[in-house]
Amino acid sequence: MSKTLSLFSALLCTFIWGTTFIAQDTGMDDIGPFTFNSVRFFVGFLAIVPLALTFEAKKLKKEFRFDTKTFVILSFLIGLSLFLGSALQQVALLYTDVANAAFFTIFYVPMVPIIIFIFKKDFLHWSVWPSVILCLIGGYLLTNFQDATVRLGDTLVVLGALFWSTHIIFTGMIVKKYNLPLTIGAIQTLLVALFSFIIGLFSEEFVIANILNEIDSILYAGILSGGFAFVLQIYAQRNITPAPAAIIFSLEGVFATIAAWFLLNQILGINNLLGCFFILSGVLLSQLVPLIKKAN
Fold first, then answer.
1. What's the pLDDT at 191?
2. Which residues have a Cβ under 8 Å from the Cβ of 33 and sit 6 or more positions away?
3. Residues 29-54: pLDDT tens digits?
4. How does pLDDT run across 51-82, given as a tens digit for each residue?
5. SS3 content of the chain, % helix, strand, coil (to 5)
6. Are 275 and 145 contacting, i.e. CB atoms less than 8 angstroms apart?
7. R_g over Cα of the chain
8. Contact, 268 vs 109, CB < 8 A?
């Protein structure tokens, strides 16, 4: 029963992540990307804090005997990576379609082992290289090269995927060392809200009335994606193996594409759909082939 609930949690989490792209896209009708992110992540922080206090208050006393300097440095790096990844993704949605943004974002999956190999010289499985080639082919098919604006948006998303990769790597390091996932989640969302507010203060206008006009999108992206989905992800990965988790989480782009077609009437051509297929295949290849080899 717990495994079934975990699979459902993973699927619901992925659905929330995918459909959040719609909220991110529609939430900028009256406000800028940094204003949206600052309010969204602050709402996410408010959603996670009660969970962190409820489930990790007792752990904090024990864990605070650790190396505080390392915790602070890693927390800052996680917050900075999440800020850069989400900021580039949010700005990119001003120039490109939801489907493009969603599928280029999952480029982070094959990027992670490559970054780890470059900096830590860890073993790099051969499946990473064909997966990168598949992702590049998919990227070529997904991008409309006749539209310079779309190309700019897609480039920003790919650059953002680099920071989603570093976010995953730093998160893996800190969670392995300190068992405080909800506390870390609260810290990183607060940092992103703060960084976004500072940038937005100089580049955008913070108008309360305009922010309230986008409150539905902000609450969806903040509470559900920033808070609820985070808890679902933790529960899911406690009870299911990496293989089904990789398959389910990779469907984020699929859910985003369907939602964009249904809610925003964004329709992809045959080349774009083939591009989505190649990227999804590349992502799954990099995750599943090493696991199949281990099982044998």
1. 95
2. 87, 90, 91, 93, 94
3. 999 999 999 999 999 999 999 988 88
4. 888 888 777 766 656 667 888 899 999 999 99
5. 85, 0, 15
6. no
7. 19
8. no
Q: Is the pTM of this model over 0.70?
A: yes
CA distance 223 to 98: 20
Separation of alpha carbons 175 and 203, rounded Å: 34
Residue with tokens 């922080």: 45
Place of tokens 């990099």: 286
126: exposed, middle or buried (Cβ count in 10 Å: 0-12, 13-18, 19+): exposed
Nearest CA among 99, 96, 89 for reference residue 151: 96
Q: Quick check: 84 and 156 in contact, CB under 8 A?
A: no
Q: Tally the C-alpha atoms within 13 A of residue 160's C-alpha that lie toward its C-beta.
A: 25
Residue (of 228, 191, 157, 230) closest to 73 by Cα position = 191
Dist. CA 268–CA 279, nearest whole Å: 15
Give residue-wise pLDDT tens across range 132-191: 888 888 887 777 666 667 788 888 999 998 998 888 888 878 777 777 888 888 999 999
205 phi-psi bin (left φ>0, alpha ψ -120 to 50, beta other): beta
